[in-house]
Amino acid sequence: xxxxxxxxxxxxxxxxxxxxxxxxxxxxxxxxxxxxxxxxxxxxxxxxxxxxxxxxxxxxxxxxxxxxxxxxxxxxxxxxxxxxxxxxxxxxxxxxxxxxxxxxxxxxxxxxxxxxxxxxxxxxxxxxxxxxxxxxxxxxxxxxxxxxxxxxxxxxxxxxxxxxxxxxxxxxxxxxxxxxxxxxxxxxxxxxxxxxxxxxxxxxxxx
Amino acid sequence: xxxxxxxxxxxxxxxxxxxxxxxxxxxxxxxxxxxxxxxxxxxxxxxxxxxxxxxxxxxxxxxxxxxxxxxxxxxxxxxxxxxxxxxxxxxxxxxxxxxxxxxxxxxxxxxxxxxxxxxxxxxxxxxxxxxxxxxxxxxxxxxxxxxxxxxxxxxxxxxxxxxxxxxxxxxxxxxxxxxxxxxxxxxxxxxxxxxxxxxxxxxxxxx
Amino acid sequence: xxxxxxxxxxxxxxxxxxxxxxxxxxxxxxxxxxxxxxxxxxxxxxxxxxxxxxxxxxxxxxxxxxxxxxxxxxxxxxxxxxxxxxxxxxxxxxxxxxxxxxxxxxxxxxxxxxxxxxxxxxxxxxxxxxxxxxxxxxxxxxxxxxxxxxxxxxxxxxxxxxxxxxxxxxxxxxxxxxxxxxxxxxxxxxxxxxxxxxxxxxxxxxxxxxxxxxxxxxxxxxxxxxxxxxxxxxxxxxxxxxxxxxxxxxxxxxxxxxxxxxxxxxxxxxxxxxxxxxxxxxxxxxxxxxxxxxxxxxxxxxxxxxxxxxxxxxxxxxxxxxxxxxxxxxxx
Amino acid sequence: xxxxxxxxxxxxxxxxxxxxxxxxxxxxxxxxxxxxxxxxxxxxxxxxxxxxxxxxxxxxxxxxxxxxxxxxxxxxxxxxxxxxxxxxxxxxxxxxxxxxxxxxxxxxxxxxxxxxxxxxxxxxxxxxxxxxxxxxxxxxxxxxxxxxxxxxxxxxxxxxxxxxxxxxxxxxxxxxxxxxxxxxxxxxxxxxxxxxxxxxxxxxxxxxxxxxxxxxxxxxxxxxxxxxxxxxxxxxxxxxxxxxxxxxxxxxxxxxxxxxxxxxxxxxxxxxxxxxxxxxxxxxxxxxxxxxxxxxxxxxxxxxxxxxxxxxxxxxxxxxxxxxxxxxxxxx
Lengths: 207, 207, 332, 332
Ligand SMILES: Nc1ncnc2c1ncn2[C@@H]1O[C@H](COP(=O)(O)OP(=O)(O)O)[C@@H](O)[C@H]1O
Ligand SMILES: Nc1ncnc2c1ncn2[C@@H]1O[C@H](COP(=O)(O)OP(=O)(O)O)[C@@H](O)[C@H]1O
Ligand SMILES: [Mg+2]
Ligand SMILES: [Mg+2]
Ligand SMILES: [Mg+2]
Ligand SMILES: [Mg+2]
Hints:
The complex is a heterotetramer, with two copies of chain A and two copies of chain C. Chain A is mostly helical.
């Protein structure tokens, strides 16, 4: 909804805005995501994300000396907030981002794609799922791909949101291949994966 | 519903018919009585009476040598079927009737009023409630009164049913004065006492 | 309401079959097999304690048969008192030659049947005493305390009287202990959702989606007020207030607390309630001698909870803490 | 769904407050106070056993901290795994110098956090092993048995591993026992009514008035079939059939049976189920080494039950019968 499209780079300041917007988006979509998870899982995705993003939005990263430190503070705050699958994977992603941005106070929008790629790799390693399993991973992968060669915020936002949305649509009628939902693959067909849906909401609602 | 109006006396045979009809009436009204009890008590009056009357209808009293023995067999069968308040009071009544009819193979319809009176007395002694408390006792009392000077079955049936019905109507808007219902006397106003209602159904449906 | 059962009429007998199959310390006996006693029977020379009541309240009543607790228990159909014969048998099975205390809740059917049983057994030389559980403060005012119904607090009288009997006390003393415990105990319950008698076609009562009932009886008998659900702390505060306002004259400032689930309420919520009970008592200068939190006395699948306070002196505290062991309550 | 609670966000912390207030044998600790350990801490020289998992399953997980069972337990929000820090702390608090077995259910979040915790503590010289509960046969086929979720049967591994650790076994042996127990245990559940996450505005799933779901997961994850409620015996027969068809190769003909209530199902109904379980096993020539009937592993107010069979040899039977004591399970 923001009309700011000028930032030349990703900074700690931008990160803070992103966290606040993410929290706002998750608060508003908490029950919708719980409901989506109730169909395939245990109905807690929305409440978990609302809590996790609240923890991020409260974490004080203003004093962080670089992006690496800011991501690390977020990882720590997120980790304290939950031990759920998705939450832990997001923390894993934040940790990977922290490593990749250590010592940098800003990165260009053209560096976002590899950053997301690094986060994706860490999530795959930690969670043990594969691309194609109908999880948040597929959407993250699509976002990383879409961000290649992008160099400004407005394009990044638009392409990331489109990629996430497209992935959600593409996977809707595919069966879930991880967790318990595997067992009733037919029933998972037609249902949105809650993790993927959450990312989609974050990217269309967020910065 | 029966059109038999000729029996000159109350016999073991008539008792057996009464038990069967009582069972039939209670079976048909089981849920209605449960519901009435649910409003003031624990919702079991109907199921209890269905079970108790089934036990009576199954008790073989054909060989009983007199009314006293038949009533005693019924008391025993009823007692095995339940230990509920109302059930136990009915067993108490059967025991009192057994005592009063010991040695008699038949009694006249004009002897029914004192027999009911004796049963009522035993129920009051055992249960500790008083007339006016809005229990089955008030209906039994009215029936005993109505049967005074009656000497045939048809009149007995009509007057007993009317008396029970009248008592039910008279007490509907009075407060309950025993058991837990005492505590919410206002809420018991307008409600039929389930024990009284059961007697009413038995007498309008029964022999 | 969905229930795991076969024919509704078989609910009680099949439940008892399963109970004794799972718990070899319990023996099912009696002509109509509606008595549970300790495996091995009465201990000669010990005062016996018999209880009884309707089904639908597990672990009450039958589950409390065991060392330091009950010797026997008669059991009726769901929410119906135990029949006369089973009450007689329960007394007989509890009799070790030093008399039997009949200790059960104050309900019409239960009382009539135990009374008749006692009268009939007197002729056979069995001495009985009776103490009735009357802890439900919502079931009658303080001026009619003897008319109150027995609910969850009854198990505290099982515990103290059972410990006294196990220690060799005579019938009068066991009776005194039971009566003293009942006199020191107060309970109030609150229901969130109803239960259904297996043979009934609908729940015993109904509550709106946000409605609760304060003071509801253990069979779903109407309570004190019905209103919207409040926060747990507010409910506890009101319940404590009512319990303490009704405390016996000269009550001690030390209590055994029982936060009891009525059946469908999860342990999580009982602990949320207990947290406030403990702090609320602390604020009032009342110390907790022993907390009990769990489903001790239920109404099948009713949702809700009760809070019981037993104002203990040294004697009662010691007896509550004495060793005991039944399938649902072990004090080491 | 009505719950006794205050702010939904405080559900877990207030529950833990109440739990430790009611049970002084449990101590709440950790930076975010999301670890329960035995009061007094780890016993030097004993292999430690740490578990952990989401809230909403009491007595699991925290309730099984005690002698002969767990040393410590990390606890997450409702249905969310415990966070990394609490997993690290649980391992540290369990460590008595001879290593720590991490024994918990096979769920993504739990596994990731315990794995990370173990990796981080390795640097500090704490040796850990991991055994995952994988007893839910409805959560994956026999060919993917390692992917199965851990449900009620996990407590049997607590018991055997706990007994071995208490008896002085070393880390490898305690690990072997836990793994052997998991490999010998099969569970299937059936749900009659849903539960609701405290922060959610609706139940996790919904079932029609007569509908039930066979094979449902312990968080309400969909199961094998959904159909009208059948008689209890028919349900038990199907569940036993499925469990036995899935028995481990070369399984013994002796089992520990756990008939577990999911939260709102009354004990009466669990005993009705157990009655048929016992007779059904008998008909198949399988003897019961030890029956456990009760609410051991729940999903808050979910209605339903699970049946677990643990095919025991002499070693496992002895360990299951060894003394143990926690607030919700005492083996004398
Ligand atoms: N191993 C995994 N790898 C990748 N994504 C996963 C994995 N496990 C779960 N997810 C994602 O997390 C979502 C579920 O999140 P959430 O409900 O918070 O977790 P939980 O299963 O712990 O309740 C899924 O929809 C899926 O997108
Ligand atoms: N002490 C008593 N004296 C007379 N009638 C009683 C007494 N107690 C109960 N009743 C009658 O029994 C009815 C309730 O019967 P029932 O539901 O079978 O008993 P319970 O209270 O044991 O569930 C009441 O409506 C009332 O008419
Ligand atoms: Mg989830
Ligand atoms: Mg009744
Ligand atoms: Mg009743
Ligand atoms: Mg979860």
